[in-house]
Structures are given as C-alpha cells and as structure tokens.
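Our preliminary data section would be incomplete without showing what the modeling component actually yields. Below, a chain of 627 amino acids is followed by its predicted structure, encoded as tokens that our downstream tools consume directly.
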Amino acid sequence: MLYSNSLPGILITFIAATTLAFTFTNNNLHAKVIWWLVMTAILAVRVVDTRMWLKSTPEGKSRKSWTMRFSCGCLLTALMWSLYAVIFYQQFSIEELSSTNVILAAMAGGATSILSANLMLASIYNIIILIPMSVLLMMQPEQYKINLGGLGICFTIIMIISSARSANYIKEAILLRYRNKKLVSRMEETIRIRTQEVYEISNKDSLTRLYNRTAFLSAVERVEQDFNLHHITGFAIFFIDLDGFKNINDTLGHNAGDNVLVNISERLKSCNAADTLMCRWGGDEFILLVKENRHQTIRALAQKITATLSQPIDLGDQTITLNATIGISVCPEHDTSVTRLIQLADIAMYSQKGKYPERMAFYNLNLEHNLHRKIMLNEALKCALERQELRLVYQPIVDSAGQIVSFEALLRWHYQDQEISPVEFIPLLEQSGRIVEIGSWVLEEACKMLVTLRQGHAEICMCVNISLIQFYDKDFVNNVKQVIEQQAIPGHLLHLEVTESIFQSEQMQVNHKVSQLQKCGVKFSVDDFGTGYSSLSVIQNMNIDYIKIDRSFIQHIENKGLSIVQAVMDMSKTLNFRVIAEGVETETQRHMLEQCGIPYMQGYFFSRPMERQDALAYLGDASHKSE
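Predicted structure:
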C-alpha cells in the first residue's frame, strides 16, 4: 500500500515544494534553489525506487528491505520540509509564514491517509514535519505565533491519532479482504473438487478408475474425428475378456473379484502408452483404443498384455492366476466406425475364447460368419426337439468274433435340409445348458430302442454318451434310475460313456454318483481315452468298466499307435477293465487290434452309424449270418 500510493504523494510534494520555493523569492533565493534541488533529487530517487518496486516479482515485492527504503525516502522528504521551516523562518513574511504552515499541515494531513499502512512511519513523519515549526513559533514573543505553535502541536497529536485509526481501519479492511479472498479461494477449491468428483462419477468406473462405457465412447469419437481429418493414420481396438473370472466370484467372493479387477486395470495401465484409451466395458471385459494400425506392433502389444495379465495375483491369503483372451480390430483395415470396430473385436475375442496357447486373434470375415452361424444355430436349437429335428442313430460295437454286442446311440440334427455336425451343435447345447434336457431325451430314446433290440437279443447293450454338464445335474442319477425302471431293462445293459474331462472334477461327487448307478448295474465307459486328463488311480478308484481307445491312436496303429494300444491292454489286465477300440476303418487295423487281444471294436469298417430301422435290420441280418 505504501508504494502503491507513493507516486501521487511524490507529485504533490514536488508541486508544493516548487510553489513554495519560487513564489517567495524576495530573499535567500539561492538557498531556496539549493533546498529545492535537494528535495527534487530525493523525490527523483523515490520515483526510481517506486518504479523498481512495481517491476519486481510478487515474491520480490514482499521483502522487508522495500519497507526500509520507502521509510528512508519518506522521512528524508519530511526532514527537508522541516529544514525549510527552520532555515528560512527568520526571513518569512506573514504571507510566506501562512503558506508554509498551510503546506506543512496539508503534507501532514495527506500523510495520515497515504502512510496509514505503517503507523510508526506516519507518526514520525507528522512529528518531523510539524513539531519543529510548532516549537519555533511557540518560542516567539507574538501571541498569535504562540497560538499557532500550540495549534501545530495539537494538530500533530490529532494527526497521530487519526493515523492510528486509519491504520486500524486498514488492517481490518485487509483482514476482511484476506478472509473474503480465502473464502472465495476455498469455495473455488470446493467447487473444483466437487466438479472433479462429478466428472469421476459420470466418466470413470468406480472400481478400476478407467473410463466407463459412456465416457469411453465419447472419447473415441474424438479419435475417430482425428482419423477422418488425417491427423492419425489409424488405430486398433482391443477387446479383452478374462478367462475363468466368474469362478473367482463364485468361489472366493465378490471382494476377491473386485481386487482382481483393480489389479488387472493397473497392469493394463503399465502395459500401455499414456494416450491409450482404456475402458472397463462391463464385468470382466475391458476395451483399449491404441493409436497404432501396424499388425506387427499390435501383435507385440497384445502378447505383452496377455503375458502381464497371466502373472500370479496375490490376494493376501492365496494366489490365483488368470488368462485373458484378446480380440483385435483395426482401422481402417476392418472398418472406420469405432462402434463397428468394437463389435468386430468382440467377435474376434469370442472366436478365440478358450483356445490355447494363442490368446489373441485379429478379426476376419470368417470369424463373423462363424459367429452368425453359431447364433443362428443356437436359436434354432431352442425348438429343435419340439420340431422333431433331433434323432438318434446307432453304431454297432462288435466282439473279436465279429458278433454285435452293443450299439452306441449318437445324436443327429437335421436342420433346414442339412445335417448339422455334432461337433458343431453339441458345444452349443452345453454352453446354453440345454444339454441336460436333450441328454435326458437321448437317454430315454436309447433305452426305448434297447427294449426293441432285446426282443430278439436279450443280452445286447446300449451305450449312451453323457455330457459333463448333464452328469453334474442334481437329478441325473434319479433320471437314469427312473428310465431303467420305466423301460424295465436290466441295469447292466445300459453303458454310460463319459469323457476324460470328468476326472478333472470333484472326485468325491463323481465317485458317489458312479457308485450309486453301478449299484443298479449300470456300466461306465471312458470315451476318447488318451486325449485328455488320464489318471489310472482315479480309473481304478471309480471302478470303470470299459475304456475306449481314441480313434487317433487306431489311425496310427501301424506306427507308434500300436505301442499305445498294447500298453492299454496291459493296463486293462491289472486294473480290471475291458477295452474297446473305436475308429476302426481298415482290415489291417482290425487284424492288428485282434493280434493285440482287443476284445471289442467299433468303426466304419464294421458299420457307419445307422438310422433306427436300419440298425434293427442290420442286427437281424447279423444274427442270420451267425446261425
């Protein structure tokens, strides 16, 4: 405040000094000119000092040295006024005396407000200007001069009191201004924080702090515009899905699942550049927009992400490992619309789901065609049973003498004038859960066929494939028992075929169900033996009745397959199970299997799967030939 108000005060002081020095020139003009020059020099120095203060930095303006410099300049100015009164008093005319008193009083009055920011400085300034002149007047013999001197002393006291009041008022004003400024600043900070919170709530996923879906779509619009304006050459969309995440929520709880998602999001941030847009799309799905369209670079990044995400995650009391599947679409190769590219990346991810070791896939037209076909078939399967599109065919199993000992019931689907492969539609039934309903229907139909077959062949058996999902259905055991009772067939004539994947499941539950059905006489076969998880101890504990050697070994029996077949036969004698070789297609294969002692065979060499009536006729013909 002192410096801010100094220039007007300096100007008024210069005008007053010039007026006083050059108005009364009848005596001591030379001395007055010298006084004026000294006063002007002091004022000039003060002007320079003020300009220096104005140009200094905010931090520099707060230094205490400026207050000292200003005070020195101000007090020197007051001293010069006082010297004028003392030096030239003896030559004062009544007019000059009056003018001097008025100017000094005006200077003192002006200082009360201008210097009120510093009470000490204002008080000393008033004392230096007024007291010497007042004392000098009181020492004169004339009564009016004595009165003027007393009035000057009283005026000095009044000015000091006024300065004190002004200083106090200014302090309160500054304090109030500071408080208001602080309040405004605090309000602005509060508003900024609240605005940031609103932004976070509306734009960030509350758990991972990545973009939510809405904010991501808004952000990628700008990238799409950059591409359209040729600011970038292209970009890629990564659609990431965590494999097996649902099991974590189901077994360890949602808190553990949340911790996993937070950990995964941090790993994604560590793998990607700062300009990569990252979004938690929903659940355990994440989407990235990477400003890159070169396949080699994109593939390297995808491999880095899958490797990083597959690292063990420490949850405190245990460690888990997850894999991720990534689908990738590229702009402009696949499309230029971000919405469409997200859809294409999703298609690519879905097509690669569960495949190993390759965990990522670029989109291509075949993938989309396959997905559309899966969706179409999945919808058609919902009513396939009601439309009577599903049926069973039967493939015989023969003994070493060529006699038919059983049939395997195989599910077929005729849809829109074409036969849909079981390899294609069985997984769809399992994924949708409809395999339980369809499996029950297959079991019932196969047992009805068995009733018919037994009319001329009492000991012929029926083999029925059982899905792992169907096996774990809570009503599975009761359904099997109910079908056996309803069709009035001996339990040992029903053979249930399961794959080796059943051994990866909870063994106590598996053993319990197998044991319950084996008490009813039902036989169990392990299909496709040797292609999956095999544990001989588990096979022994479950008391498996039959092992079906997978067709892949039979096809290579003339090479290394023969050793596998022989090894299985050797194990069968120790573990007390019987062996069936499936996929027999040539006389050579049959002969070699016979030499190995394989008791049962199945394959195209004997017969392809047959329709119901053809199977009945085939069995009748085989019986006549044997007679």
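The radius of gyration is 51 Å. The chain has three domains: 6-179, 213-363, 380-626. Preliminary results of this kind motivate Aim 1 of the renewal.
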